[in-house]
Amino acid sequence: MIHHQPEKLIKGVAYHGNRMLRHVETDLRDIVNHHFNLVVHMFSHTDWDRHRSVMKEIIQMTEGHGLDVWIDNWGLGGPPGDKSHFLAYYPDSHQVYNDGSVDPVRACLNSPHFRKFTKEWIDTVYDIGGRSIFWDEPHLPAKSFEDGKWKVWSCACSRCKSIYRERYGREMPETFDESIEEFRLWTVVDYFKEVTAYSKAKEMENIVCVMLGASHGINLDSLEAICGMETLDNIGSDPYWLGQKGVHPYDFVYKKTKQNLDICKKFNKKHNIWIQGYATPAGREEEIIWATDAAYDAGARTILVWGFRGSESNDYRAKSPDMAWNAIGEGMRRISDRHNDEIRLRRLEQLNK
Fold it and tell me: What values do phi and psi take at 311, rounded to 5?
């Protein structure tokens, strides 16, 4: 008789803001008690420089509690996350906007120095025990939207202009058009083709999460551009509803999750869906539960929350971290119970045939 392994429900939480091991131990027990089985750990440039051996111990401790681990490239090339410290070493690798202004904190994805730096980071992640990399919200910024087009966008540094000239046989236009949109998308994709091929050669898992906003070069609507990469295993998004006008959390998360899952199914990729547990206004904590239910109802089985205790260690924390963390745990408990009930009912149905 063949026993089929039921689909695992993966429930993850982002953890950062602490590098003291005795507190990590307490927090990991708290994470387990809130029904999680995966932790996404940040590994920033600062962690690389100052906490490398500590992070190795944190990964070991996390796995010792039975939790899986993803490693986040937090702020490596700039936001999201920390400002890019890499730029202090390679000041010629800044992103530059088409109006000539320099982005002070973001690295150009076409910089060969930055690509080399990323590979060195991958080596370090591997050395400290990381085997799954979470590529956090790859994007190129744009701002000043006018007449249906971006007025100010990146990257238009001399390096990117030269690559554009080689690809299109003309100078890069000063105003946004379809070729710029295409080139920005190509830039993100080309960077990830190179760096994920490097990590895949080390037999590491590559997981990506893209933003929803239209200004970021790659988002849920343009996600198909990266789905064809054999080196990417898992592709997701973060349907954060706070700040969205006129939406209900359940409806918004359900629809965006469906869109993500449809793309993943088309390209035979795993998925990851993020629930917003940070910046929660007081009195709206139950929306976290509704959103978690929505992601599960839409078919997601890898559901994560940003972040631990409502991101209490950050300025963007939930207004009432205890209440937010309670709602986060309740959301995870509900989908855990539902998942186990569905497995039990399927087994029962098969036994009674």
Answer: 55, 45
